[in-house]
Amino acid sequence: MEKLKKYVSARDEDQFYHQGAVELLVFNFLLILTILTIWLFKNHRFRFLHETGGAMLYGLVMGLIIQYATKASDVESGTVYECEKLKSGRSTLLINITNQVYEYQYRREISHHNVNGHQGNAMLQKMTFDPSIFFNILLPPIIFHAGYSLKKRHFFRNLGSILTYAFLGTAISCIIIGLIIYGFVKAMVHLGQLKEWEFHFTDCLFFGSLMSATDPVTVLAIFHELHVDTDLYTLLFGESVLNDAVAIVLTYSISIYSPKENPNTFDAAAFFQSVGNFLGIFAGSFAMGSSYAIVTALISFMLCEFPMLETGLFFLLSWSAFLSAEAAGLTGIVAVLFCGVTQAHYTYNNLSPDSKMRTKQLFEFMNFLAENVIFCYMGLALFTFQNHIFNPLFIFGAFVAVFVARACNIYPLTFLLNLGRKQKIARNFQHMMMFSGLRGAIAFALAIRDTESQPKQMMFTTALLIVLFTVWVFGGGTTPMLTWLQIRLVLASNPDKNTTKAESAWLFRIWYGFDHKYLKPILTHAGPPLTTTLPEWCNPVARLLTSPSAYGDQRKDDDTDYIINNDELTENYESSAHIPVRDRTGSTQATGKEDIHEGDLGLGGYKLQLEHTAHQPQMNSLA
Amino acid sequence: MEKLKKYVSARDEDQFYHQGAVELLVFNFLLILTILTIWLFKNHRFRFLHETGGAMLYGLVMGLIIQYATKASDVESGTVYECEKLKSGRSTLLINITNQVYEYQYRREISHHNVNGHQGNAMLQKMTFDPSIFFNILLPPIIFHAGYSLKKRHFFRNLGSILTYAFLGTAISCIIIGLIIYGFVKAMVHLGQLKEWEFHFTDCLFFGSLMSATDPVTVLAIFHELHVDTDLYTLLFGESVLNDAVAIVLTYSISIYSPKENPNTFDAAAFFQSVGNFLGIFAGSFAMGSSYAIVTALISFMLCEFPMLETGLFFLLSWSAFLSAEAAGLTGIVAVLFCGVTQAHYTYNNLSPDSKMRTKQLFEFMNFLAENVIFCYMGLALFTFQNHIFNPLFIFGAFVAVFVARACNIYPLTFLLNLGRKQKIARNFQHMMMFSGLRGAIAFALAIRDTESQPKQMMFTTALLIVLFTVWVFGGGTTPMLTWLQIRLVLASNPDKNTTKAESAWLFRIWYGFDHKYLKPILTHAGPPLTTTLPEWCNPVARLLTSPSAYGDQRKDDDTDYIINNDELTENYESSAHIPVRDRTGSTQATGKEDIHEGDLGLGGYKLQLEHTAHQPQMNSLA
């Protein structure tokens, strides 16, 4: 008996050691399945269910299996340990450890136990993430990769429109969703489904802001694969990436908006405080991200002999940008986004060729894994999350609100933008943009952050359903929709030279000039030496700051001002053929010769020399 | 007031969101510092403090800072929340969330609170890992990388000696440490420092087994950098890698050894059960790891078009080997080690060139990060772990025991081995092996697994001190010791042709023949087609299983039997110059031309064609 007891206690301990392994194994298994499916789809050029949709589907099935397979053993696994045993320390191992990393869920469970006496399912709890893992570990690589692979040229050419969609559009979307939802909430209160005091207008706006974050993953991957028109691609990419940042900060600002008295009335002071918060956080995060990137650029100057150290430093400093912003109460995602953009612009040029490859592949890989984990997890959450509240009216309202808001965002704004744009955004482009308003990881992540109260749980359930619906239906419908709207594909054999000139060029002409003359020489090995660009009295400082290799380029770069003002902002088919974002499989054989640089980050790294020489004739012919 | 309260609650929540960020930031900061230090050391060829030692030192300093900097705010941060608040759910956020991923510590804290009413330091708790993160996430890449980069040729040539050191040596070491410690424990009981019933002989053996795991990181990195004699390198590498596996299984077997009555007496049944456990677990883990690798090899056949998918699958399946073994109650580390070896042998050959690069660099990078995190963390643990028990007598005893046990392991076994070896292990090699018995991550990880009882805490503290001492003193002293012992360095300009012939060749000749004829053709694209190696009546099956590309090699490979039996087991300087293990920085410039393949996994992938052609003349001249 003694022995048996000892053995059992050893088994307990054993259980303890192996805990965590099972859950990770489930995720590994889902990811392996997803990869095999992607391979199958790629091989058969099947595009009606995108890999993200596939990942989500597998997650869903797995969630269903876990829920039903573990229900039988519910009573054993959920045994409530007496407080007595707590003191002995050892026997409590099991119950505590099963919750392992899932403290959040654990805490919820505790309060649940206390309040409702409800007993949860251990396996299901295990499969529920701590949102901080989501935010601190899974999201940064995705966002960083988005920023890092941003196609600067096209992005800046359409920057005016992108900013309009991202800032104004998101605000419009947030308010419209909030208003419509508020209407439905009023109706629900009228029907007695909800208490008046449970759901304020700020809650509706909160829901509106989190549902305004569109997903940059699914549609863009398809666009990229099909080589959809570059302008449309850039508009959508820029919008969905920046819009995430805006939505996150907006959600945060709304969550700390607190009118003094009646929460349903408008409080100007609190409102302006929220607006101030919004601007402050956005600017602060931007500054944080950029400064980390600049530090990386400066440090990477030194390390160029050791690719592994370079890559390590690059990775750690970029992640630190995120973590520092979070620790400082700013928004890490905004910081890491701009950190990515700045790293791509400066640091990337300082890396050794080997390092460039390593860094690029590392981030691609992390992005790939993180994305698939998130989508698997979203599928899982539908069944494993314990406190879903399905309210048909609210769900219906949310669906209506999301689509109406998207329409009120795209069509009026495009109309206004078209007044100023030389190259109008075509009707079919507008429909495609309307159609591409998928909701994805960010909306889900924002919703899962707070699932304390019943209204928040209802919001989470609804958000999850909208994500599932849009990813499957809209994601799957992208290819047919493109055909139906007759949106041209950029073919390698038919380079369309007749694309637009710089749209909002004057501001960026100034910025490019400054960047090229002063920042690039200081932060990278590229660009003209500072001795030529700074006034003469600055020469001692200039000499100190200029990299020796910059002098080598001096002779070639005499006409740089001309180049940056004209060439950087002018379309050049050579580079537009390689929309570099999200080559999710690193495929080199599948799409033919024009894709040799597919998967390249397109940041001028490898192609720097190539482009440089390519520019020479053009420059001369223009001179 | 209302507003303030709301604001405060928002702040609380805010705190919650940003929790986890600070701790991760601390680690990021330490790693960045470490990388910069490595760079500095590399640049100045400074070898007295190895990077692992540096990482540990930074961790130590950081631990000190955290301990003293946070002491002042101890009272606020450690507020004990009343049970009342637990029900409201929200206010408990802070206390719960600060422990986040560190459930284990949290539990300990709870029991501590209950038993001693002692109040911990919140920041310090935060910096204490959950051991399951250590085991499930940080160790697998290191061990996998070790297995993956194992130099097969040299390894198999010395396999007899390596197995003797790893199995017999570890057992000897474990018993000797156990006996010496038992002596000291008796003395401590006599002096009244310890109660008789607190420390059994099995506990001493437990300590012996965990202290028998030698560290493969520090010394080998230096050896590799200096190009120390290949035989010595292989012996030490093989010993320290396999010895980890043995020590882990041994520790586990001892922890479940349970004699029926008096725990100090010898119980034959329980003993044999433990031996059975040991063998069963070892064999099971081996089988688990190998079968995952075989599955990967078979799947990777299909995916060769998509490097990213290949790499992803490779990564996930290898990790799954670890997790499955853990979930099945086996030892993940043993599984992942053999998975690495098998992956390197079969799967690696199936990968596309791009994938080979990606996979190699990915594992190098993960290995690099994980190693440095572990060493930083070991430094941190000295100050942040809350329940250290420093017992000078026990510590002294442990130091004596560790050195005596190392001596009893190396010298007698080498004497016995030298009786059978054609190429004797020289005296200075023996001293070097004695000196290289560092204790590292595995010993630490095994010790931190269980710190429940006071004896276990004492063991943990002592193990940590031994790790710190050996890594700093022995790790730092490696270079002077090599000079002092006059151990020759393999110089590129002076290829030593007079190395040994196969030592335990007959067994491996059979294995190699079988592997080359049957397994390689089935599992990889390499090797002769099965149609030539299988008996004629198997032809239909053989045709089905043979990869089409294998036929291409058929003409060239007519003499393969001869090659494998002779060439594979014969030393060839070409390949021995590139000891491929642990190129921790991916440096390509630092060590000169002979290192072009440094960092290559050396698994015949890139060099397959090269070697193949190199073998042809040799083969012909022998024919």
From TrEMBL, chains A, B:
> Which GO BP terms, alphabetically?
regulation of intracellular pH; sodium ion import across plasma membrane
Query: What residue ranges are annotated as transmembrane?
Result: 20-41, 53-70, 133-150, 162-185, 235-258, 278-301, 313-346, 366-385, 392-417, 460-485
The species is: Amazona collaria
Q: Which GO terms describe its molecular function?
A: potassium:proton antiporter activity; sodium:proton antiporter activity
**Key words, A-Z:** Antiport, Cell membrane, Endosome, Ion transport, Membrane, Sodium, Sodium transport, Transmembrane, Transmembrane helix, Transport
GO cellular component, alphabetical, reads: plasma membrane; recycling endosome membrane
Keyword presence, Cell membrane: yes
Name listed for the protein in its UniProt record? Sodium/hydrogen exchanger
How would you describe this protein's topology in the membrane?
Answer: Multi-pass membrane protein
Q: Which residues are in coiled coils?
A: none
Q: Could you tell me the superkingdom of the organism this chain comes from?
A: Eukaryota
Q: InterPro entries, alphabetically?
A: Cation/H_exchanger_CPA1, Cation/H_exchanger_TM, NaH_exchanger, NHE-6/7/9
Q: Where in the cell is it found?
A: Cell membrane; Recycling endosome membrane
Does the record bear Transmembrane in its keywords?
A: yes
Say which family it is in: Belongs to the monovalent cation:proton antiporter 1 (CPA1) transporter (TC 2.A.36) family.
The Cation/H+ exchanger transmembrane domain is annotated at 33-484
